[in-house]
């Protein structure tokens, strides 16, 4: 049985290309020396709204464990919200498989 404690932290989404963003996994400091071991990429298939999840470089994301959805939610005053709902498993430093479920939202105008 999985158990855990929900946390809320601010993450910066950085565009990698037109369909891909990256962010820092967990609550690690968002500094470049931490990126290779703690970076996650999300790639959006705009035709289906599906999101693929993969490591930026070294984070041990369990193959084929990542999935998600992406949508643009219309907001007030012409400000839309981009919402990513994703799940993935990774191997922690104790060699234990951990589950992550994340909702990321960004605003645009």
Overview of this protein structure:
With 109 residues, this protein is mainly beta. Helix content is 6%, strand content 49%. It is built from one helix and seven strands; from the N terminus they run E-E-H-E-E-E-E-E. The protein has one helix at residues 32-38; strands at residues 14-17, 20-24, 39-45, 50-55, 67-73, 80-91, 97-108. Strand 3 (39-45) and strand 4 form a beta hairpin. The mean pLDDT is 84.
- Beta-strand portion reads over 45%
- DSSP, total strands: 7
Q: Please give the order of strands in the largest beta sheet.
A: 1-2-3-4-5-6-7
User: Span between N and C termini?
Assistant: 42 Å
Low-confidence parts lasting 5 or more residues at pLDDT below 50?
none
For the sheet with most strands, the description reads: 7 strands, antiparallel
**Molecular shape:** globular
What's the helix count? 1
Specify the helix fraction band: under 10%
Order of helices and strands: EEHEEEEE
Report Rg: 14 Å
Mean pLDDT: 84
Secondary-structure-derived class: mainly beta
């Amino acid at each position: 049985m999985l158990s855990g404690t929900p946390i809320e932290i601010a993450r910066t989404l950085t565009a990698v290309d037109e369909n891909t963003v990256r962010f820092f996994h967990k609550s690690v400091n968002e500094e470049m020396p931490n990126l290779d071991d703690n970076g996650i990429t999300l790639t959006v298939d705009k035709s289906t709204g599906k999101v693929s999840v993969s490591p930026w470089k070294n984070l041990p994301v369990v193959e084929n464990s990542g999935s998600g959805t992406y949508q643009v939610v219309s907001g007030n005053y012409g400000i839309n919200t981009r919402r990513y709902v994703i799940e993935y498993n990774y191997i922690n430093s104790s060699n234990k498989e951990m589950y992550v479920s994340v909702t990321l939202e960004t605003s645009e105008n």
